[in-house]
Amino acid sequence: MPSKGDKEEPEGGCQDAGGVHEPQSTEQLNVSRLRSSSVEIREKGSEFLRDELHKAQKELKLKDKECERLSKVREQLEQELEELTASLFEEAHKMVREANTKQAAAEKQLREARGKIDMLQAEVTALKTLVITSTPSSPNRELHPQLQSPSKGGFRKGHGRNKSTSSAMVSAASQNVAPEPVSSECREVDSILFAEFQAWKESPTLDKSCSFLDRIYREDVGPCLDFTKQELSELVRVAVEQNTLTIEPVASQAVPVGKVAAEECGGPKKCALSGLPRTCKHRIMLGDSGNYYYISPSCRARITAVCNFFTYIRYIQQGLVRQDVELMYWEVMRLRREMSLAKLGFYPSEM
């Protein structure tokens, strides 16, 4: 039989064992709670991140749509700008063509008018000759056909004087106005010059360092603008290059205007560029200086020839000339010939 003391020991041992298991279960419960809470937090966090990701994706789509819309607007504006530029250039070309047509028509009318004036002057000269050579002591038989013999003059009816006078005027006019010779000009493209022009045409510029303009400066522009007054010649060349030179006809009462000395400006009877006594029908102004310089017809022809050349190459640079390259080349050669002739002293009489 176990003793009382023996029974109490197992009970105490059982109590000790129960005391050990209770802390272990509590700790496990706490760990499971922590695990469940961490899982819950992780799920909520992932759900929050998903929501934020969806929002970001929506905003990105909206921005992509806005970028696409702005790109379309930009392309439309660029297309409209190109169409507007093309229409402006076309309008400019049309205006230039119309201006050239009107200028050609005006020049033709001017030539016809000058021809009529020459004819009238010849008729007046013939009339003066007939009147002067007819005196009472020695009458002119052309003015007085009734004095001619019947065998030579024949029977005349009506106003014979008018008929004879008219024939005399026609004969005088035919003597004074000689027919212009008809000549056919032959020309051939120089390979070196044409190659230089083609290279310049690919990228047109007014920089005289390129081979095309360098040659023309050396051979044409420089000699054509080389006058006796070197300082004024240099100012004229710069004004022509910068397109700031003005040429205007001289009024009969005009006097030198400006701050420079009158002897430097020349006068109606003295050319400021050559320094020679010449009848000056035009004067030039360089930029906005307000100083006028009187120039002779020869100097005006030389300056005008250079200005015409620069005007044409500026049109080419701005894209206003829509012609074949060879036609543009021959126009440049024609302008170079004008500069060479002007340098040699040849110029139209209307200068």
| Helix and strand element order | HHHHHHEHEEHH
Poorly predicted runs:
1-15, 134-138, 143-182, 253-259
Measured distance between first and last alpha carbons = 161 Å
Percent helix? 55-70%
Radius of gyration: 51 Å
Strand order of the largest sheet: 1-2-3
User: Into which percentage range does the β-strand content fall?
Assistant: under 5%
Summing up helix and strand content along with how strands pair, one would put the structural category as mainly alpha
Q: Count of helices?
A: 9
Shape: elongated
Overall pLDDT level? 79
Major sheet characteristics = 3 strands, antiparallel
How many β-strand runs?
A: 3
Keywords: Coiled coil, Guanine-nucleotide releasing factor, Phosphoprotein, Protein transport, Transport
InterPro entries: RAB3IL/RAB3IP/Sec2 (IPR040351), Sec2_N (IPR009449)
GO cellular component, one term: Golgi to plasma membrane transport vesicle
Protein name: Guanine nucleotide exchange factor for Rab-3A isoform X2
Describe this structure in words.
The protein is mostly helical and 351 residues long. The protein has helices at 4-132, 150-153, 160-176, 191-202, 211-224, 230-241, 262-265, 297-317, 325-344, and strands at 245-249, 282-286, 292-295. It has a three-stranded antiparallel sheet. The model is unreliable at 1-15, 134-138, 143-182 and 253-259 (pLDDT under 50). GO terms for molecular function: guanyl-nucleotide exchange factor activity. Belongs to the SEC2 family. Residues 46-130 form a coiled coil.
